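Q: Structure tokens for this one, please.
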Amino acid sequence: MNKADVVEEFRQRTDAPSRAAAARSVEAFIDIIRATVATGQEVRIGGLGVFERVYRKAREARDPNTNEPIDVPGKWTIRFRPAKEAKDAVNK
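A: Here is the predicted structure, written as tokens:
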């Protein structure tokens, strides 16, 4: 399922007046999560999970072709931890 499919499903389930209105709602939801996590706060959505900002430390990796070491710099990234309800739904 891609973003267009999510928009269409959202439109059908919420009786949104148009596809454009549904798309704006989905985009706003994504923007809220992205902006909140970027500030270092976590977003908890009951029944779905937690989006949080985490730091990955710098490390040394290896080039698979030459086996030479490569320095991978540290960086901030987003992590999603699913809620128990989401895990249970997947494992049915």
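A few notes: The chain has three helices and five strands. Residues 19-38 form the longest helix (20 residues).
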